[in-house]
Amino acid sequence: MRKTILLTGGAGYIGSHTYVALVQAGYEVVILDNFSNARADVPDRLEVITGAPVTVHRADVLDKQAVAAVFAAHKIDAVVHFAARKAVGESQTIPLEYIETNCTGLVNLLMTMRDAGVFRIVFSSSATVYAETEDWPIPEEAELGYASTYALTKLMGEQIIRQVAGSDARWRHGILRYFNPAGAHESALIGEDPRDIPNNLMPYIAKVAVGELPTLNVFGDDYPTPDGTGVRDYIHVMDLAEGHVKSLDALMAGAESHIVNLGTGKGYSVLDMLASYSKACGRDLPYRVTERRAGDLACYFGDPAKAKALLGFQARRDLDDMCRSSWAWISRRSNMRGA
Ligand SMILES: NC(=O)c1ccc[n+]([C@@H]2O[C@H](COP(=O)([O-])OP(=O)(O)OC[C@H]3O[C@@H](n4cnc5c(N)ncnc54)[C@H](O)[C@@H]3O)[C@@H](O)[C@H]2O)c1
Ligand SMILES: O=c1ccn([C@@H]2O[C@H](COP(=O)(O)OP(=O)(O)O[C@H]3O[C@H](CO)[C@H](O)[C@H](O)[C@H]3O)[C@@H](O)[C@H]2O)c(=O)[nH]1
């Protein structure tokens, strides 16, 4: 019997890629998304990629009745929970909205799961839950902390799930702490598609590559890193998606709850990314070095050993794969808009 997975936020960037990986792994998948940060045509594109109809419920995780109706309509076996607000800067200006969506939304979901007798959840956490450190690679046991309301909501999400799990032995959770997701599906039909000027490096470079932004601002070249620019653990979004499948497979097979990093364990600098993207798009992309961005760390990358040992997960794709797939996606998207 195929297992049915509820994928909240399944029309978003990581959720849509995880949809593809779950379907390919043989799961039946039901998407719940309010499309607050997703394009309306994503389900059609998922249908083209997977060659099968997509089941979508346009609903808000804050609407308990609507969430319960989805559980009533399908026999859900487990949940992969992506639906959240994710902009760090915005979380500082509208903290209550972030706490509401990310924490109250999670509580609604857990209550509905409990009432429906569903006790397996894979949760999108983030490397942002680690306290600032200069001790890399960062293992899961590292000290935790938060520097933004967004990070607080992810830390609270982890704690809520663990606390609830402690009350009833039937609960099993996979808490996945992502490092920096990048790239797109090889079909170039889905990918990251920010509506505003992006804060993150890869979507910003992508917009420079298609000519929507004039030049990349490199935030500082005097960090204590090999080329002076910031170093991060970029992970291909399809590797990340496959990490969710591994976590879910483990929970469905009766494994214990786990908290793991999903990263590559390798660091790439801003200039590495720029060089790789320039190669992918076939021209040297313009950049200028500006002031450091407030709050940025020089270097940040995770220890992937626990995900490998517990789940057999290892990222397979490298920075060139991330840049090539991002370019294929963004150039196609931009041509379609121009058409
Ligand atoms: N992208 C990153 O760098 C990153 C890093 C670490 C963790 N995460 C986490 O991964 C998850 C997915 O991130 P993403 O990059 O795909 O973001 P995204 O914004 O592309 O996807 C989130 C999806 O959730 C939906 N959504 C938002 N609020 C909702 C609500 N109240 N009810 C129903 N649906 C709602 C949005 O429409 C969107 O489709 C989030 O939980 C995010 O915090 C992201
Ligand atoms: O226009 C830009 C954007 C970024 N950078 C640099 O590129 C690197 C990566 O920056 P991102 O904003 O893409 O990623 P961060 O690692 O800084 O932040 C991300 O990862 C964090 C945890 O690692 C949090 O989860 C946060 O929400 C998420 O955006 C940093 O050195 C940054 O200074 C630039 O030089 N120019």
TrEMBL record:
Coiled coil: none
GO cellular component: cytosol
Domain NAD-dependent epimerase/dehydratase positions: 5-263
InterPro entries (alphabetical): Epimerase_deHydtase (IPR001509), NAD(P)-bd_dom_sf (IPR036291), UDP_G4E (IPR005886)
Entries under Pfam families matching the protein: Epimerase (PF01370)
PANTHER family hit by this protein: UDP-GLUCOSE 4-EPIMERASE (PTHR43725:SF47)
Enzyme class: isomerase
Cross-referenced Gene3D superfamilies: NAD(P)-binding Rossmann-like Domain, UDP-galactose 4-epimerase, domain 1
Needed co-factor(s): NAD(+)
SUPFAM superfamilies in alphabetical order: NAD(P)-binding Rossmann-fold domains
The protein's name in its UniProt record: UDP-glucose 4-epimerase
Family of the protein in this entry: Belongs to the NAD(P)-dependent epimerase/dehydratase family.
Subunit structure: Homodimer.
Catalytic activity line of the entry: UDP-alpha-D-glucose = UDP-alpha-D-galactose
Source organism per UniProt: Allgaiera indica
Pathway(s) the chain acts in: Carbohydrate metabolism; galactose metabolism
GO molecular function, one term: UDP-glucose 4-epimerase activity
NAD found in the keyword field: yes
EC number of this enzyme: 5.1.3.2
Keyword terms of this UniProt record: Carbohydrate metabolism, Galactose metabolism, Isomerase, NAD
Key word Cell inner membrane present: no
Example GO biological process: galactose metabolic process
